[in-house]
Amino acid sequence: MADVAAAKRYAQAAFGIAKDSGTIATWRAELADVAAVLSDSQIAPVLANASVPVESRIAMVERTLGVSPMVLNLAKLLVQKGRSSDAAAVASAFSRLADEHEGIAHAQVTTAVELSADQLNAIASRLSTSLGKKVSATSVVDPGIIGGVVVKVGDRLVDGSVKSRLKRLRRELEGTR
Question: Are 88 and 75 in contact (CB under 8 A)?
Answer without folding.
Answer: no
